[in-house]
Amino acid sequence: MSAKYVKVLPRSLFSRGVNYSEGIVTDVVDWNADPNIKTGIHFCDFDAFPIYLQHGELIADVKLIKNHPKIRTNYCIGYKAYKIKLYNIREISSLECWNDEVFCENSVQLNGHSLQYIKRQTYNLAHNAIINNPYAIE
């Protein structure tokens, strides 16, 4: 079972001025709790991570840190916090969820590029991926 919250990361583990690694990660920009301001370390619920596949090939589990609450953002599906703890960084392609039929169906509806990770691709999955993104099978 994966964590409730996750963060998609680039292979370089560097994004928006932040060097990511397992452990506590703090934003490099002054914190603003306004849900309309794009500061903070962003993360999402596990089931929503396919939306962010364009952000990287790795995924990390997220643990919230006491006195650093999560703020639901108004500009994307997810949350932000000034400081979080990352653990269990691994390849997105290694996740067991890519064998789960229901998860895969939902993922191609969120992001057609999810198709590349799905172990048992079907006509319906490919069709829904293309509806979401015509370039999904390139």
Total DSSP helices: 2
How do the strands line up in the largest sheet?
4-9-6-1-5-8-7
Tell the overall outline: elongated
Distance between the termini: 31 Å
Strand content: 25-35%
Biggest β-sheet: count, sense, barrel? 7 strands, antiparallel
**What's the count of strands?**
9
Radius of gyration (CA) equals 15 Å
What class do helices, strands and sheet pairing give?
alpha+beta
Overall pLDDT score = 93
Report on this structure:
The chain has 138 residues and is α+β, with helices and mostly antiparallel strands. It is built from two helices and nine strands, in the order E-E-E-E-E-E-E-E-E-H-H. The strands form two sheets. A seven-stranded antiparallel β-sheet has the order 4-9-6-1-5-8-7, with no helix packed on it. A two-stranded antiparallel sheet has the order 2-3. Helix 1 runs parallel beside helix 2 (123-132). It is elongated. The N and C termini lie far apart (31 Å). The mean pLDDT is 93.
